[in-house]
Amino acid sequence: MTPLRAFIAIELPNQLQNALETQTARLRRPLGDELIRWVPTKNIHLTLKFIGNIAASHVDFLKQLLTQTADSHPQFNLQIGGIGSFPNSKRPRVLWAGIHAPAELASLQKSIEAGTTRLGYEKEEKTFSPHLTLGRIRQNLNETALQKIRITLDTIQLGNIGSTRVDSIHLYKSELHTSGSVYTKLFSAPLNNKTN
Q: Measured between alpha carbons, how far is residue 152 from residues 35, 78, 106, 133, 144 in Å?
């Protein structure tokens, strides 16, 4: 069977996607499509764990892991605001919107990381840095183009974009097409909504 490219993520509700679309238009106008490969707003999500290629038969193990993990973690609020770039503003490769999240997000991500490692998937070496990828800087841009990106990021600030209640986590498959990635939700697990 063909392997699936899988990842675990938090989905953004439509009203937050719309707010993100409106705010990031302020970046897209001056930078255009020739400098940045923009992520379609409908594809923007908060990745908790990129798993990579898995056998279709492993999906059930991941569903069980998500169900157990979600049940032991409470719902929480997430706030989106601010922009930045990886690895840094001098050499931007990825543009992102910031996430202001409570300790519950870090705890949830840590549990997912530990669970997927127990299932035999590779442990992520980088420290979890919650963000929403807005676009990727195109390869081989000259210094003038990179300077334009840096100046735009310095002059356009995205303040508070919006907030949402996170009530579930999702397993997705990612299919790469010439027109871009297509994400399909395979499974959703609700977070615990009991109050102490």
A: 12, 26, 31, 17, 12
Q: Cα–Cα distance between 182 and 7 in angstroms, integer?
A: 12
The letter for the amino acid at 151 is I
Domain ranges of the chain: 4-190
Straight-line distance from the first to the last Cα atom of the chain, in angstroms, rounded to the nearest whole number? 45
What is the distance between the alpha carbons of residues 91 and 27, in angstroms, rounded to a whole number? Answer: 17
pLDDT band at 159 (very low <50, low <70, confident <90, very high): confident
- Residue 20 near residue 98, CB atoms below 8 Å: no
In this prediction the pTM is 0.90
Class of domain 4-190: alpha beta
Structural element, H or E, at residue 182: strand 180-190
Within 8 A by CB and 6+ apart from 27, the residues are: 83, 95, 134, 152, 153, 156, 158
**Taken in order 101, 104, 106, 111, is the CA torsion positive or negative?**
negative
CA angle 127–172–131, rounded 5-degree value:
35
Cβ–Cβ under 8 Å, residues 141 and 80: no
pLDDT at 195: 61
Q: Is 4 exposed, middle or buried (0-12, 13-18, 19+ CB in 10 A)?
A: buried
Q: What is the pLDDT of residue 70?
A: 97
